[in-house]
Amino acid sequence: MKISCDFCYHRCTLEEGQSGLCSVRMVRQGELVTQAYGQLVALAVDPVEKKPLYHFLPGSKTLSLAMYGCNLHCNFCQNYTISQPSFMQNPAAEPVDGPALVSLAMERKCPSISFTYSEPLVWQDYMLEVASLAKAKGLATIMVTNGTFSEEALNRIFPLIDAYNIDLKGDEQFYRRVCKGSAKPVLDAIEYLVHRKAHVEVTTMVMESEHDTAHILTLANQLAVRGVQVWHLSRYFPRYLATEKATSETYMKQLLDAVSSSPIEYVYAGNSEQKQATCCPYCNSLLISDRRYVPVHPEKAFVGGRCSRCNRQIYGRWTS
Ligand code: SF4
Predict the structure, then answer these.
(1) Looking at ligand 1, which atom is closest to the CA of residue 23?
(2) Radical SAM core domain: from which residue to which, for each copy (predicted)?
């Protein structure tokens, strides 16, 4: 008998002993299971800015964790040793249960837990188990994802995750050629989450050889019509199978200038010397000067999530 997995848009239909495209979900003794459930391959305390989230509890730390796996196969993957099937081994670690992670987050004074580094969609059963316990203890929950949800996954995950950083990697052609994926489920997920008022920030890694100005402006438009307010343009460095040279600072500046007239109010540069400050989009007061140096401190002009000069509300969650 075949069983379908609804954890992501691929919807793999699997027979006994088969694994899905992620190599994580498999049918074992007639049941669809997540292999190596709870066996973490990464666990660290990070600044929340590293996710990147710039408008969600700025200056705070987040307990960040991952299991193996991803459902896309991007040739530039920055975390390929824990995402791609050919690098997966049996993690030696014992499974870590939810209560232990919640206690650790509280001990380490982290107001949030982040599911990150690899692709949490393919281990979402474990993510949801931990997230539910974390929320019961008053912690916030963060998912850093490629955004290729199925509709069922969105419905399951939305109530338990507070903030999302979602990759929008390029246009449809780019996804098919470079990632063996599709842009459509990502755009659908962004629309679903923004519409329901989840906290959403989007990241696009910019490859100079792939993302010309027209391409980036198309993405800006797709995000703006869906109501996205925070967009990170992250500078590419060669990694995994991608050998193109690193994106230059000059090119980053050129793209930031090009998108400055888009309706997206907060656009930042990542892995770069370019813009990382937050200014009020209404009166241009400086609200947060820079995220590259921790600890991050909002300026005096920024009080309780409002610009104190013009009193406008600034998008985000500013206190836990
Ligand atoms: S998580 Fe996605 S890729 Fe993995 S088995 Fe399920 S549907 Fe397939």
Answers:
(1) 4
(2) 55-262
Q: Is 72 in the pocket of ligand 1 (CB under 6 A)?
A: no
User: Ligand 1 centroid vs 12 CA: distance in angstroms?
Assistant: 5
Residue 313: predicted pLDDT: 94
Distance from residue 175's CA to the centre of ligand 1 (Å):
17
Q: What is the mean pLDDT of the chain?
A: 93
Domains for the chain: give ranges and CATH numbers.
38-276 (3.20.20.70)
Q: Please identify, by atom number, the ligand 1 atom nearest to the C-alpha of residue 10.
A: 7
What value does the mean pLDDT take over residues 106-111?
A: 98
State if residue 25 touches ligand 1 by the CB under 6 angstroms criterion: yes
Task: Examine the pLDDT at 295 and tell me if it is beyond 80.
Answer: no
Residue minimizing CA distance to atom 7 of ligand 1: 11
Whether residue 220 is predicted with pLDDT greater than 70 in this model: the reply is yes
**Res. 92 pLDDT band, cuts 50 70 90:** low
